[in-house]
Specification:
Blueprint (H helix, E strand, L loop, with lengths): L4 H29 L12 H4 L5 H4 L4 H23 L3 H24 L4 H28 L16 E5 L5 H13 L2 E4 L8 H14 L17 E9 L2 E2 L1 H10 L6 E7 L6 H11 L6 E7 L2 E5 L1
Parallel strand pairs: 1-2, 1-3, 3-5, 5-6
Antiparallel strand pairs: 3-4, 6-7
Helix pairs in contact: 1-4, 1-5, 1-6, 4-5, 5-6, 9-10
This protein binds flavin mononucleotide.
């Protein structure tokens, strides 16, 4: 099995939810067992609570604080940990949300206590938990995104049309298959010979993207000259054409008769620069350009 970034992030989130949850339950138990706070050496902190609303009713001892800690940071995080163990999506979302809750909780401490190491540390823990939750959510969406090529039955019916694509995560692949299915076109995947998968692949691609380098690809194993029209589907890398498609266009120069482009990216941009670069490399003028904003698999055409 290939390395799963979601699994790694899920395990870290289990750690954070258990660490914060167990710590909060332990702290709350001590507060409820000895509401004066003397046993924990916290009695001297009670005066700081008196600036809070309704302090005369709820902050004369640690009963209310203990119950609040138990519910807001203790049982909440332990519930999220249980859901994460059960591999439920809700565990991922709640795990991240409770990181934010912890940061908000600590913000109250920042207001009422003088600046101190413990509050600062726990704020950082909350931030780390929230970021881990967000990463786990994104990785979960990315890894559950699949393209079922078998369902595109119309592909290959019109031998005059071709759809070419490069795709790291599968988003451009799905768009290309949809386009080819509508057109009845043949489909061809550009395959990079450099590493493009996973986190290391992402940074490696970023390097090629930043330098505007072409990325080596496998030999083009299809006769491009036999098609009257080619549609090129490409992701955007670092605000420009992605590196493997750049190399494809260099190699395909003079072999494509007519072309249009489909570009995928996170933003609402139209990336005319990428279309112009392909035109220049292919020595053609595109007949159409479509931009698709794609956020972890949710596609929307940019009008
Ligand atoms: C190295 C790299 C750089 C990227 N740079 C941009 C960018 O500048 N703007 C943007 O909107 N999306 C950017 N993206 C996001 C991709 O364009 C987007 O996720 C696309 O849907 C990926 O398609 P794929 O899964 O088919 O490879 C970048 C992705 C990678 C890997």
């Amino acid at each position: 099995m290939t390395h799963s970034r979601f699994e790694a992030a899920r395990k870290w989130l289990v750690f954070w939810t258990l660490f914060i949850g167990i710590g909060a339950v332990a702290g709350a138990t001590e507060m409820l067992v000895d509401p004066s706070g003397k046993a924990m050496g916290m009695a001297a902190m009670l005066p700081y609570f008196q600036v809070l609303p309704f302090a005369e009713y709820v902050f004369q001892d640690f009963v209310f604080s203990g119950i609040a800690l138990l519910i807001v940071n203790g049982l909440s995080n332990l519930t999220a940990a249980g859901l994460l163990f059960a591999r439920k999506k809700a565990g991922v979302i709640l795990g991240g949300v409770f990181g934010v809750t912890l940061m908000l909780w600590i913000c109250i401490q920042f207001v009422i206590f003088p600046l101190n190491v413990m509050s600062t540390l726990y704020f950082i823990f909350g931030l780390a938990q929230a970021c881990t939750g967000y990463a786990a959510y994104v990785f979960m969406r990315q890894e559950s995104f699949t393209v079922d090529t078998a369902k595109y039955k119309n592909i290959g019916r019109d031998k005059t049309r071709l759809v070419v694509y490069f795709s790291r995560m599968g988003y451009t692949k799905r768009t290309a298959y949809e386009a080819a299915d509508v057109l009845g076109a043949d489909i061809y995947e550009i395959k990079a010979t450099e590493r493009t998968e996973g986190t290391i692949g992402f940074w490696w691609c970023g390097r090629f993207g930043m330098h505007r380098w072409p990325m080596p690809i496998e030999d083009i194993s299809i006769d491009l000259t036999k098609y009257s029209h080619v549609t090129i589907c490409s992701p955007i890398w670092v605000f420009a054409l992605c590196a493997p498609v750049r190399e494809f266009c260099i190699r395909a120069k003079g072999r494509i008769k007519e072309v249009d482009y489909v570009l995928l990216h996170h933003t609402q941009g139209k990336y005319l620069n990428a279309a112009k670069e392909m035109d220049d490399l292919l020595c053609l003028t595109h007949t159409a350009l479509k931009n698709i904003q794609c956020r972890v698999g949710k596609m929307r055409e940019v009008k």
